[in-house]
Design goal:
The structure holds 2 protein chains of 2 kinds. By secondary structure, chain A is α+β, with helices and mostly antiparallel strands. In chain A, 27% of the residues lie in helices and 16% in strands. Chain A folds into 2 domains: 9-47, no CATH class; 66-171, Alpha-Beta Plaits (2-Layer Sandwich), CATH 3.30.70. Chain A has 6 helices and 6 strands; from the N terminus they run βααβαββαββαα. Chain A has a 3-stranded antiparallel beta sheet with strand order 3-4-6. Chain A has a two-stranded antiparallel ribbon with strand order 2-5. Chain B is of the alpha+beta class. In chain B, a hairpin with a 2-residue loop joins strand 9 and strand 10 (213-220). Chain B is built from 22 helices and 16 strands. The model of chain B has no long low-confidence stretch (mean pLDDT 88). Chain B has helices spanning 2-12, 34-43, 108-120, 163-172, 177-181, 228-232, 241-244, 252-267, 273-301, 305-326, 348-370, 374-380, 388-393, 398-402, 410-413, 434-458, 476-481, 483-495, 535-541, 543-547, 552-561, 566-570; strands at 19-21, 24-28, 51-59, 71-79, 84-92, 99-100, 124-125, 187-192, 204-210, 213-220, 335-336, 339-340, 424-428, 502-510, 513-521, 529-533. In chain B, helix 8 (252-267) packs antiparallel against helix 9 (273-301) and helix 9 (273-301) packs antiparallel against helix 16 (434-458). The chains are: A alpha+beta, B alpha+beta. The interface between A and B is large, with 48 and 67 residues. Strand 1 (3-7) of chain A pairs parallel with strand 13 of chain B.
């Protein structure tokens, strides 16, 4: 096994290359080859009819966030502030309150994510010790007419369903 | 090898004691002797430190237990032939007086010293053009000083006219007022950019023209400056990884790898074999992507739009594979200190191989259009020639340096991740013109694909993360169900990965050249200082040397051929 140094050949000295026409015709055959292939069968073109046809989104995709829930519908989050601490862009703002359903002592009363600040790195998911925040919604397009509506809160985060089955999500490494 | 450099240094300067830090040899020099030492390092044939990689400063204002002066300037030098890395450190007593400039020795020092002045306010005596570079000209204060208020927003209200600078450049080329008012030479000043499709980002190329010929050129950068280095001082080591995505965004994962490699080498962590092979495969895959972007855009500048489809389509399709793997198309954030964020997914080999074949087909189609095409030859051969001496002087690395005929590649000269066990070629050019820069990149695509195929065959099974509680987050099962795992998890997230106090430099062969990171650690989980050595910053610093005397149209394709990426250039 070896690493060799090789000088790149400089083209352009032969008569045929100097003549220009031959090589241009050769180049044209490549372009025309593409043209006729695409004309006869356009199924392999890299064209996506968005938004009718959505792009493929994998279970690993870091999409818009959601907060997961227990079977009874209560929020899994215990307001431990891990995601807020690990967030490199400081876009998560949590306010903790007391919890009375016996699952833990704390729960969030406010859980805001500023989607305009978020850089979609997935560090909140990595930091969560309760599997309470996930980015598996498959939502890749976050658009709005107003800045305010992109500051999403607890209700919106809890309402969003996951985009994948549990099996697929864990297969992806989540 | 480093021992020999230490011996040579001792023989020349008996009173200076060289220390070894990782691959680098470090010497401390008093400011009075700086010029003598630097001159010898550059010119003494036994040392021959022809590459000035970077200059940076450290502000020790809040460094725990620091005695002595507040500022220290660090010069990073390299002898590429023998793979010697040297750091010269000099204390600065008074930033207003500063240090003597070394821009007479290395062209790279021109911009590097301007950056130090801009960020730290340290002056360099005798510098030809000491002004701000990354921050705008109306900026007040020096942001990388520890007492700078980061919440103070500063807006630029007026453009920098650059008139004085371009006139100085004209004068340096021997064109004075009398020539300019001569009837035959009607000088015209023209801005290319900052917001122009041909600049591939926001760069201002200010030119003085005689007809279509560029007589003098001054460049203004910093339009995409967002304070990466200052932000990094306020984040834990792992939190910086997503920020590195945004340096060279055409090959985000290479930045991730370069960054974690630098931290791991200081921590002394040996990552698992599988993680190493993953980094080789993905690093080379992103090198291919980076070259595809560069070539596609460059050929469009030249008027060959068809090439764009053949090359860019495959780059676009590659993003599907990348997003399946990393969870995002552009901002991969796929490495962590100690390994990789995730393993490959099931069936990755087939996806990768299919993609490689598609890339090969696209590149071959494009080569059929350009390789023997006389229009391409006439436009690129012999234009914007960069001599090897100039390239070294301005700190060029990577494909730009190799196109001048200098076979310097960190994968060959300072191998990491088993690169020395792979079978591949380092393509080099012979003239250093645009043609060589394009063809070296074309060849590197094929070589990278060769490396990927070998690595895919050899990749071992096993974990992708080290089993080390200092750096690795415990498995989620332990976090959910065990108190030890939970406590470890909390500690790592809240405090970050702690590194021993010290200073070090480590580098990686990224798609554009040597991507280095200079760290100063105070022992906590947050870097005290982090400086990137961005390859395109130095490529841009020598841009005027390449285009002066050429035509405007050549300047445009030359800018594409050195592959300037704004995210990395301006940080």
């Amino acid at each position: 096994m070896s690493i060799k140094v090789r000088v790149v050949e400089r083209k352009g000295r032969t008569f045929l290359e100097q003549l220009y026409l031959v090589e241009v015709v050769k180049g044209m055959t490549v372009t025309l080859g593409h043209f006729f292939r695409n004309l006869l069968d356009n199924s392999r073109l890299y064209v996506r009819h968005y938004p009718e046809v959505k792009p493929e989104i994998s279970p690993r995709w870091r999409g818009r966030h959601r907060l997961t829930r227990h079977e009874d519908g209560s929020v899994k989050c215990v307001a431990c502030f891990m995601c807020q601490t690990n967030c490199p862009s400081n876009c998560i703002m949590i306010e903790a309150g007391e919890r009375f359903d016996g699952r833990s002592e704390k729960m969030p009363v406010k859980f805001d994510i500023d989607l305009l600040e978020c850089i979609y790195c997935g560090y909140c998911v990595e930091a969560c010790p309760m599997d309470a925040i996930r980015m598996d919604t498959g939502i890749f397009s976050v658009t709005s007419n107003s800045r305010e509506s992109l500051l999403i809160g607890l209700e919106q985060l809890m309402e969003t369903p996951g985009g994948f089955s549990e099996v697929d999500y864990h297969k992806g490494g989540g | 090898m480093t021992d020999t450099v230490s011996e040579k240094l001792r023989a020349l300067f008996p009173d200076i004691e060289p220390q070894k830090v990782l691959d680098a040899t470090v010497i401390d020099v008093e400011p009075e002797r700086l010029m003598v030492v630097m001159e010898r390092l550059k010119t003494y044939p036994d040392l021959d430190f022809s590459l000035l990689l970077d200059i940076t400063a450290v502000d020790y204002l809040t460094y725990p237990g620091q005695q002595g002066g507040r500022f220290r300037v660090v010069y990073t030098l390299r002898n590429w032939k023998r793979n010697w890395l040297l750091q010269v450190r000099t204390p600065v007593a008074d930033p207003e007086l500063g240090l003597p400039t070394v821009s007479g020795l290395w062209g790279a020092a021109d911009w590097a010293e301007r950056e130090v002045y801009d960020q730290y306010g340290i002056r360099f005596q005798g510098h030809p053009d000491l002004r701000r570079i990354l921050n705008h000209w109306q900026f007040e204060g020096h942001p990388l000083r520890k007492d700078y208020d980061i919440y103070k927003g500063q807006v630029c209200y007026e453009p920098d006219r650059l008139e004085k600078e371009i006139r100085a450049r004209l004068a340096a080329k021997g064109i004075d007022q009398s020539t300019m008012s001569d009837i035959n030479t009607e000088m015209m000043f023209l801005n290319l950019g900052p917001s122009h499709p041909a600049t591939h980002g926001a760069i201002r190329i200010f030119t003085a023209l005689d007809g279509e010929t560029i007589m003098a050129n001054v460049n203004e950068i910093g339009y995409l400056h967002r304070g990466f280095e200052k932000t990094a001082e306020n984040r834990t080591y792992n939190q910086i990884i997503p920020l590195t995505d945004r340096l060279n965004y055409c090959s985000a994962l290479m930045n991730n790898i370069a960054y974690v490699k630098a931290v791991e080498s200081w921590l002394g962590i040996e990552i698992t074999d599988r993680a190493m092979f993953m980094r080789v495969i993905l690093g080379e895959f992103f090198r291919v992507q980076d070259h595809l972007v560069c070539l596609a855009a460059n050929l469009v500048d030249m008027g060959g739009l068809t090439n764009y489809w053949y090359l860019y389509n495959e780059k676009e399709a590659s993003y599907d594979f990348i997003s399946r793997l990393t969870g995002a198309r552009l901002t991969s954030s796929f490495t962590r200190i100690g390994g990789m964020y995730r393993d490959f997914y099931e069936g990755w080999e087939a996806d990768l191989e299919r993609q490689l074949q598609a890339i090969e087909k696209g590149v071959n189609d494009s080569l059929k259009l350009v390789l023997q095409n006389r229009i391409v030859h006439d436009r690129t051969q012999g234009t914007c020639v960069l001599s090897p001496e100039k390239a070294l002087s301005y700190g060029y690395t990577g494909p730009n340096l190799r196109s001048t005929g200098i076979a310097f590649d960190l994968r060959k000269d300072n191998p990491y991740y088993h690169y020395d066990s792979f079978d591949f070629d380092i393509p080099i050019g012979s003239r250093g013109d645009i043609y060589d820069r394009i063809m070296v990149r074309f060849e590197e695509i094929f070589e990278s694909i060769k490396i990927i195929r070998q690595a895919v065959k050899r990749i071992p099974a096993g974990p992708v993360f080290v089993d080390d509680h200092r750096v690795a987050l415990p498995p989620k099962e332990q976090v959910y169900h065990k108190i030890e795992g939970l406590a470890n998890h909390f500690k790592l997230i809240f405090e970050g990965v702690k590194t021993p106090a010290g200073e070090w430099y480590d580098s990686y062969e990224a798609a554009n050249g040597e991507l280095g990171f200079h760290f100063v650690s105070d022992g906590s989980g947050t870097p005290y200082k982090l400086k990137v050595r961005p390859p395109c910053f130095y490529a841009m610093s020598g841009f005027h040397e390449m285009i002066e005397g050429e035509m405007i149209a050549d300047a445009i394709i030359n800018l594409g051929s050195i592959n300037i990426i704004g995210g990395e250039l301006d940080r």
